[in-house]
Amino acid sequence: MKYLSSYFTFATTIVLLFSFDPSSADSHEKFVQCLYNYPYVTNSISSVVYTQTNSLYSSVLDVSIQNLRFFNATSKPVVIVTPLDVSHIQATIICSQRHGLQIRIRSGGHDYEGLSYVAEVPFVVVDLINLRGIEVDVENSTVWVQAGATVGELYYRISQRSNTLAFPAGICPTVGVGGHLSGGGYGFLMRKYGLSADNVIDALIVDVNGNLLDKETMGEDLFWAIRGGGGASFGVIVAWKIRLVSVPSTVTVFQVARTLEENATGIIHKWQRVANNLNKNLTIRINFWRLNSSKNGNLTVQAQFESLYLGPADDLIPLVQKRLPELGLLREECIEMSWIESILFMAGFTNGESTDVLLNRTQLNGLSFFKAKSDYVRDPIPDVGLEGLWPFFYEDEAEHGYVQFTPYGGRMDEISESETPIPHRSGYIFHIQYGVNWQEKGDAAEQRHLNWIRRMYNYTEPYVSKSPRSAYLNYRDLDIGINNNGYTSFSQASIWGTKYFGNNFNRLARVKTRVDPRNFFRNEQSIPSLVGLFTRMVQIYGEFTKLGNASVPNNHNTSS
Ligand SMILES: Cc1cc2nc3c(=O)[nH]c(=O)nc-3n(C[C@H](O)[C@H](O)[C@H](O)COP(=O)(O)OP(=O)(O)OC[C@H]3O[C@@H](n4cnc5c(N)ncnc54)[C@H](O)[C@@H]3O)c2cc1C
Ligand SMILES: *[C@@H]1O[C@H](CO)[C@@H](O)[C@H](O)[C@H]1NC(C)=O
Ligand SMILES: *[C@@H]1O[C@H](CO)[C@@H](O)[C@H](O)[C@H]1NC(C)=O
Ligand SMILES: *[C@@H]1O[C@H](CO)[C@@H](O)[C@H](O)[C@H]1NC(C)=O
Ligand SMILES: *[C@@H]1O[C@H](CO)[C@@H](O)[C@H](O)[C@H]1NC(C)=O
Ligand SMILES: *[C@@H]1O[C@H](CO)[C@@H](O)[C@H](O)[C@H]1NC(C)=O
Ligand SMILES: *[C@@H]1O[C@H](CO)[C@@H](O)[C@H](O)[C@H]1NC(C)=O
Ligand SMILES: *[C@@H]1O[C@H](CO)[C@@H](O)[C@H](O)[C@H]1NC(C)=O
Ligand SMILES: *[C@@H]1O[C@H](CO)[C@@H](O)[C@H](O)[C@H]1NC(C)=O
Ligand SMILES: *[C@@H]1O[C@H](CO)[C@@H](O)[C@H](O)[C@H]1NC(C)=O
Questions:
Q1: CA 469 to ligand 9 centroid distance, Å
Q2: HEC assignment per residue over 47-60
Q3: Chosen domain end from 448, 463, 478
Q4: Which of 156, 475, 500, 541 is catalytic?
Q5: Is the pTM of this model over 0.85?
Q6: Are 105 and 8 found together in one domain?
Q7: Which protein residues are within 6 Å of ligand 8, measured from CB?
Q8: Is residue 36 located within the same domain as residue 117?
Q9: Where does a domain end: 431, 463, 495?
Q10: CA–CA separation, 105 vs 59, rounded Å?
Q11: 269-292 per-position pLDDT tens digit
Q12: How far apart are CA 144 and CA 134, in angstroms?
């Protein structure tokens, strides 16, 4: 077995550890050779390996890039692999380690900071776009969904089988389940059923040794970690088994906009005091952006109240009139439809499109450059705080700026902080997302927009969660702290880690240490291994010299 006979000296190990040579053309050739020689692949791998000289390289890389900021990144992968089966993932993991390449794992490519396809070290992208099988088991209300599927594809497949089964996940249909479910996942069913991650009941993951593990074999701690702690620190998630939830055959939606002149501040004042205590069947989130006031041509802020109610309009109206009368909701503003139609509606398909649009992996409004940040709120923001926020919307950079308030409460209050890695549960009124999109190319435009959102974020500091100021992993934000390019101490990683995970960060680091002590699966915000630098050097030396006897990966196939 020629493939297994690499021999590493201690010196080589040190070189591997400290100096990934960015120009090592031959290391990626050796990597590709290693893939081709990998003894356990079931399908031929050569048709899914794209080096930079392959004519399809750019289209394969670009197709899932969702943020134009990272479109022309200078640090592109030396190779892209789009696995057709588990053995291709195993080969990629084993061969990248062998040839000193990092890997980045991509499912839907929505990572806000492009971490699934940009890196500063020589790296390989494992893109799961070919692994998107979805098996719906209506009888048991479960689904096996492969990581490369989008939530839109998942919603579509569920709706093909039932109009009273659903899954609580995100609003944008193009989001990939690989990243989304491993980082939380919220949408209009969160108040009733929690996060996507709360509804995962099994998973298949390929670990650093190339072993394919399920819930039983990965152990309780790893299964806990990947349901909110992000998959990328632990291995390549191949598929999830999820529990479907029930929804009535008729739901009701509305989108009602109020400007500042129409008492938006007053309505938000009241909303903050009721939104998290409403009936679990009712979610009303708020989306703010700026608008040219029709009255006087001045700029104003518009707050759009967007709602899903799990029931008929006749039940919804009295509920809103009782709890949020200031909104002045009218019967004609409410639309009854099926749950799957509400998915289209909230995603912006309001022209009677067929549900087939959920299978389209291109975002409805095309791509922009964007940056977003997040916060959690425990106490209502006083009116003076809101009034100080509005002027940010009148700045030039805010033309496509937005702020979203998503209510908590309901099911979120019933889940303990430690049940999953995501600790933001009871006691929060709502979650904030700040975002800004732009179309103008170049660094200057980028700096202006980044500066705008960062100043807005600074402004809201007194009104949001503190010690630490929390953030949502799926709204990845490298401003809150990053790892070194290489060894990162636990305390350095804690800066960003406790913002996403609170006290759960410690447990995530322990899991990481058990499953990937050498920290192969790493990025700017990956969970650190607690194995110290010196110990790690010795250990890596040991592991590399043992590679000659590497065990055969457990090679059973995914069931979906
Ligand atoms: C337009 C848009 C709308 C969004 N709407 C919502 C929303 O409504 N609700 C919400 O909660 N979030 C939303 N998000 C955020 C979204 O949940 C995250 O960006 C999510 O991580 C995307 O998953 P992905 O697979 O598409 O992204 P990717 O960029 O492919 O991956 C994101 C991260 O997960 C890792 N990862 C991906 N696949 C795997 C895998 N198979 N195994 C291990 N690690 C993996 C990546 O390496 C990366 O670190 C939205 C994002 C965008 C851009
Ligand atoms: C990427 O680079 C190409 C070629 O230079 C250019 O035409 C294109 O506009 C760039 N795209 C973005 C999003 O910057
Ligand atoms: C439902 O689950 C049971 C137990 O796991 C299984 O035997 C059965 O085949 C499942 N039903 C379907 C339709 O797959
Ligand atoms: C604005 O909303 C507040 C509720 O916060 C309410 O008390 C007030 O009467 C409303 N003002 C108008 C003009 O509707
Ligand atoms: C939510 O709606 C369902 C019917 O779809 C109903 O059975 C349930 O009682 C409602 N929940 C609450 C809290 O009103
Ligand atoms: C607002 O008005 C300005 C100038 O009249 C115009 O350029 C801009 O497109 C308008 N914006 C919106 C959202 O209508
Ligand atoms: C428009 O805004 C300016 C500055 O805020 C204000 O002075 C002016 O009165 C406003 N115009 C109208 C018609 O409201
Ligand atoms: C997918 O959606 C994009 C954006 O809305 C659209 O341009 C494209 O035509 C759609 N593709 C298909 C196959 O419908
Ligand atoms: C935000 O606040 C931080 C810390 O107070 C400061 O370093 C930074 O410059 C501020 N950013 C902007 C854009 O104002
Ligand atoms: C592999 O194992 C055999 C016997 O167990 C041993 O003799 C040999 O030295 C090992 N090879 C390496 C490279 O560690």
A1: 14
A2: HHEEECCCCCHHHH
A3: 463
A4: 475
A5: yes
A6: yes
A7: 360, 362, 364
A8: yes
A9: 463
A10: 17
A11: 999 999 999 999 999 999 999 998
A12: 6
